Amino acid sequence: MEKLIISAAICGAEVTKEQNPAVPYTIEEIVREAKSAYDAGASVIHLHVRWDDGTPTQDKGRFQEAVDAIRKACPDAIIQPSTGGAVGMTDLERLQSTDITPTPEFATLDCGTCNFGGDEIFINTDNTVFNFAKIMKERGIKPELEVFDKGMIDIALKADKKGLLVHPLHFDFVLGVQMSATLRDLVFMAGSLPPGSTWTATGLGKNAWHIAAATISLGGHVRVGFEDNLYLEKGVLAKSNGEMVAKAVAIAKLLGREIATPAEAREILSLKK
Predict the structure, then answer these.
(1) pLDDT at 273 over 60
(2) Measured at the alpha carbon of residue 5, what is the angle toward residues 100 and 162, in degrees to the nearest 5?
(3) Which of 3, 65, 75, 171 counts the most CB atoms within 10 A of its CB?
(4) Is 110 left (phi over 0), alpha (psi -120 to 50) or beta?
(5) 184-243: per-residue pLDDT in tens?
(6) Is 77 left (phi over 0), alpha (psi -120 to 50) or beta?
């Protein structure tokens, strides 16, 4: 079976220090968490940034500062800026994360509107998805197609039919928000992809570890980290992103999957550094 790529979503835009004191806000804290994940076996650092008070931002300068600092600590890591930002941000705000130097090799592209609970709606119209895909293609950035349900796979495939994506496609299934995080649904999502596609999956909160184990068994790749889950196990807060990556590594070893290095991950994902 193909080697396992582990992505670490180290801070997200919504989780807070009140929920887990180890959630990083400052550049120094973000670097600490990126390095802990990288040292434990993560090849991909999925990056949101915050101001020092924890406020989420897509500010170009803040992304540049964070990426430069992570690169010094983890020279060959794949740094994947988020274009999701936070609920309420404009498209132009969100795309600032891809307008840094050097141009990112990999970035996220959310493929549909999502209900995050209550009145929180994360809006991604078809035209937003197509525009993001067009700009990423022009900049030579491979998108990770973020999908929260099967309909978002279909929106991504609409973008593909318009010639806005480059094969092989890579998807990330985010389960436990808008679509249930069950083995049935994971298998359904994986079976809905075009031939030759690669995919990663993450389960939100209590769904993190059974989705990780199932994904590893099915040949997919795994995302863990504070953005998605704050706990190492029920009632036990994770002390770092590295602890969660180490747990994913341990599960992979039990299931017979070797861990990909950043160089191997680039080859699997068809990235150009």
Answers:
(1) no
(2) 60
(3) 171
(4) beta
(5) 999 999 999 999 999 999 999 999 999 999 999 999 999 999 999 999 999 999 999 999
(6) beta
141 DSSP 8-state letter:
P
CA 209 to chain centre: 16
pLDDT tens-digit profile of 2-16? Answer: 999 999 999 999 999
> pTM of the predicted model, to two decimals?
0.96
d(CA 68, CA 80): 13
Cα pseudo-dihedral 126, 128, 130, 132, rounded to 10: -150
Joined tokens for residue 188: 């359904």
Determine contact, residues 215/237, Cβ cutoff 8 Å.
no
Rounded alpha-carbon distances, angstroms, from residue 136 to 25, 80, 103, 129, 266 = 27, 13, 10, 11, 17
Q: pLDDT tens digit string along 54-77? A: 999 999 999 999 999 999 999 999
- Please give the pLDDT value at position 87: 73
* Diameter over CA atoms, the chain: 47
Q: How far apart are CA 185 and CA 152, in angstroms?
A: 14
How far is 160 from 167, CA to CA, in rounded Å?
9
Give phi and psi for 103, each to the nearest 5.
-60, 135
Q: Distance between CA 42 and CA 249 in Å, rounded?
A: 9
Please name the amino acid found at residue 117.
G
In degrees, rounded to 5, the angle at the alpha carbon of residue 67 between the alpha carbons of residues 63 and 35 is: 130
Phi, psi torsion values for 93, nearest 5 degrees? -60, -50
CA angle 63, 242, 247 (to 5 degrees): 135
